[in-house]
Amino acid sequence: MPKFICLLAGVVVYWPGAKGEGMMDRLPEPDIGRRLRLLRQRRGLSQRALARLCGLSANAIGLIERGTTSPSVSTLHRLALALGVPIADLFNEPDEDQSVVMVRREQRARVERGQVTMEILAGGLSEQCMEPFLATLQPGAGSGAEPVVHLGDEFVFCLEG
User: Fold this and answer.
1) Looking only at Cα atoms, what is the longest distance across the chain?
2) Nearest-CA neighbor of 108 among 37, 11, 40?
3) Cβ distance 39 to 54 under 8 Å?
């Protein structure tokens, strides 16, 4: 039984309600640590410099880059903001900018962090003004210990709950 159902750009997007229901459970988890290291190095930043920019410890940056710890949604947001990239770039390899992107359900990056699951719906858009993703929060879930605060606007469309 699907947990979420919505129509997005003519494509029915559905979210399996439990593990083991659907192809997405067989997808490998994105290598956020490797991508974080690549983005940090491309900007010529040390772990310590990035840590200062996003308010984390250099040790925490190292643990994330090695895949020893999984960052919260709040931490992912802080890292992306410090690096000047959309959060999607921490999940996907940045492609050449495109004006139209089609990401099929089985191709979406999916990350589970505690009681929050995120799916990146599009990435690599040229002049990206919006970062669409599908988030599933279990009862009592949150985005992390620190509230997510940023400049700009958010669009939230509640599908259920």
Assistant:
1) 47
2) 11
3) no
Assign domain 2-137 one CATH number from 3.40.50.12780, 1.10.3720.10, 1.10.260.40, 1.10.10.10.
Answer: 1.10.260.40
Could you tell me the mean pLDDT of each successive run of 10 residues in the chain, 161 residues long? Answer: 32 36 45 90 93 94 92 89 86 58 72 77 60 77 68 69 67
Can you give the pTM of this predicted structure? 0.49
User: What single-letter DSSP state applies at residue 148?
Assistant: P
**Cα atoms found within 13 Å of the Cα of residue 34, Cβ hemisphere only:** 7
Distance CA 98, CA 119 (A): 19
